[in-house]
From TrEMBL:
Record-linked InterPro entries: Phage_phiJL001_Gp84, Phage_phiJL001_Gp84_C
Every Bacteriophage phiJL001 Gp84 C-terminal domain range: 183-265
Organism: Paracoccus marinaquae
Pfam families, per the entry: Phage_BR0599 (PF09356), Phage_phiJL001_Gp84_N (PF09931)
Protein name: DUF2163 domain-containing protein
């Protein structure tokens, strides 16, 4: 492999199996059953690789394209944690290549019709905390294997047509089913169809209005504003408290917190902890 015939090629594979290949060469390359195309306007910065467990520091950037990486797919999170590999390739003989990076996409930002994605190396998961956290509130995520709640069960979801939406953040509904107030706070709003189909947001406020209406506010506005008539699915939220697990979800046997732990004040000053002297 010579310097004059060396280019870079990288492949991105999403969780749903969609695979795209890119190269900074001026012509197509093909190896490993992947075609690497130069016409997507995507490039990658020089890699900074550490010898320890530090994250390999690099970025991929490029223009949003209807037939490659679209803004809608990025907003929907379809490219989150996508697998990425990068090679140095002799374009005159693609069999002569060297793998220089393997990892995944990290944080993705968008601006003025372009995107920028952080590249995370294979050592990134080693930086994540391991083991259980001893805390009064539950450590499970609602609906996961540790929690065990079936979110499709009765009373935990509802599907409605959008009637009013401001800035992709504030939704209003009339004739809403009779759910308790704040039932969907910390839950999820998922857009099911329309241009914004697949986008989701976390519910900040869920307010019951007079006359059976409902006002649902997201923490952050959706990148594409749903139109009236588009359907959304609202899923109940959980504040991780033991009483919520018991009364709202009837799931106390699977509660993953430690509600009877003494408070931090008692640990620092046990003599002021209401008679809990350690006996």
């Amino acid at each position: 492999m010579t310097t004059t015939t060396t280019c870079r090629a990288w492949v991105i594979r999403r969780g749903d199996g969609l695979t795209l290949g890119f190269t900074d060469h001026d012509a197509r390359l093909r190896f490993g059953n992947v075609t690497f195309r130069p016409d997507h306007g995507m490039s990658a910065r020089a890699l900074v690789q550490g010898s320890g467990l530090s994250v390999d520091n690099s970025e991929a950037e490029g223009a949003l394209s209807d037939n490659a990486i679209t803004e809608r797919d990025l907003l929907a999170g379809l490219w989150d944690a996508a697998e990425l590999k990068m090679w140095e390739v002799d374009w005159s003989d693609p069999a002569q290549r060297r793998l220089v990076f393997a990892g995944s996409l990290g944080e993705v930002s968008r601006s003025r019709g372009a995107f920028r994605a952080e590249l995370r190396g294979l050592s990134e998961p080693l930086n994540a905390p391991q083991g259980r956290v001893y805390h009064p509130r539950c450590s499970a995520r609602l609906g996961d294997g540790a929690c065990g709640v079936d979110l499709s069960g009765p009373g935990l979801q509802t599907e409605r047509a959008v009637e009013g939406c401001e800035e992709g953040r504030l939704f209003r509904f009339a004739g809403f089913p009779a759910f308790d107030k704040a039932w969907f706070e910390r839950g999820v709003l998922l857009v099911l169809d329309g241009e914004a189909g697949g986008l989701r947001g976390t519910v900040k406020n869920d307010i019951a209005l007079p006359g059976g209406g409902r006002e649902v506010e997201l923490w952050q506005g959706l990148g594409i504003v749903p139109k009236p008539g588009d359907r959304v699915r609202l899923t109940a939220g959980c504040d991780k408290r033991s009483v919520t697990c018991r009364l709202k979800f009837d799931n106390y046997l699977n509660f993953r917190g430690f509600p009877h732990l003494p408070s931090e004040d008692w640990l620092l000053a046990p003599q002021a902890g209401g008679g809990r002297g350690g006996s």
